[in-house]
Amino acid sequence: MLYNIHFSPTGGTRRVADLLAQGFGGEWVELDLCDRRYDFSRHSFGKEDMCLISVPAYGGRVPAAALERLGKMTGQNTPVILAAVFGNRAIDDTLLELKDTLTPAGFRCVGAVAAVAEHSIVRQVATARPNTDDRRILLDFGRQLRKKFGQTEVSEIDVPGNRPYRAYGGSPLKPTGSASCIHCGLCAQECPVGAIPEDEFTGVDKARCISCFRCIRVCPAHCRSVPARPMAATAARLKSGCSEPRENTLFL
Ligand SMILES: Cc1cc2nc3c(=O)[nH]c(=O)nc-3n(C[C@H](O)[C@H](O)[C@H](O)COP(=O)(O)O)c2cc1C
Ligand code: SF4
Ligand code: SF4
């Protein structure tokens, strides 16, 4: 059985994961690492299973909440395909950090993908990716991974990255709500790390917030935002340094 396990606050990582899974073929079971209430320790995978684990690159690293939830699952020499999804800057050490976490827990990395998706903070970077070309490429990557999985000896692979991993101290962009809040509570329900107080939906616990921008996307009143000045600085930096479209890569 294929397990499609993803951490995707704004949906780009999930789009990539679903294309890889479709290309791989057959049915799959989905596990949502953004679900902070779910008990991931109930999952122990066997050697006949295949896990596809997809995360976005945050500062060239695996988001800490995803790592923590992945760390609760175990394998028994279970083959795993890793996908690092990035907003057209770089994945840096994301795949290596994922592999280093999963290997001692009983997983064996047999394939990996670095794929571009729209930047979740600055949507003018890699806008609407994965696009039509990406879809074709990612479906084909899935087919190639299936072909390898069908072989008798499925070899482990190396992934790019360096140790120590790139330092990442988080983003200063922490969304809050405005007076147009209708108190529906959706943002607090959907926040992957529980950073929005249940008794004050317009607020944010800055220490917990991972700046994933999910609350901004789900708010029906469009009332959540980050301060204009740091947002403009981030947008300018990314637009100047990351405008040239990057490619998707398969590691087999
Ligand atoms: C806090 C944060 C840090 C990010 N850091 C990087 C990065 O280091 N390199 C990069 O190319 N994209 C970076 N991105 C962009 C995301 O990796 C990319 O948009 C991804 O598709 C988001 O996944 P999602 O749509 O599943 O939420 C970052 C996004 C966020 C929110
Ligand atoms: S409060 Fe922070 S962590 Fe929670 S959804 Fe919003 S941006 Fe993401
Ligand atoms: S989703 Fe928007 S409208 Fe609903 S409680 Fe949160 S900030 Fe308010």
List the main descriptive attributes of the protein structure presented here.
7 helices; 252 residues; binds iron/sulfur cluster; six-stranded mixed sheet; globular; alpha/beta; binds flavin mononucleotide
Write structural notes for this entry.
- It is a single chain.
- Helix 1 (12-24) links the parallel strand 1 and strand 2 (28-32).
- A six-stranded mixed beta sheet has the order 2-1-3-4-5-6, with helices on both faces.
- Helix 1 (12-24) crosses helix 4.
- The protein contains seven helices and six strands.
- It has helices at 12-24, 64-70, 94-102, 132-149, 186-190, 214-218, 228-241, and strands at residues 2-6, 28-32, 50-56, 78-86, 107-116, 249-251.
- It is of the alpha/beta class and 252 residues long.
- The two termini are 20 Å apart.
- Bound molecules: flavin mononucleotide and iron/sulfur cluster (2 copies).
- Flavin mononucleotide binds next to helix 1 and strand 4.
- The site of flavin mononucleotide has 27 residues, from helix 1 and strand 4.
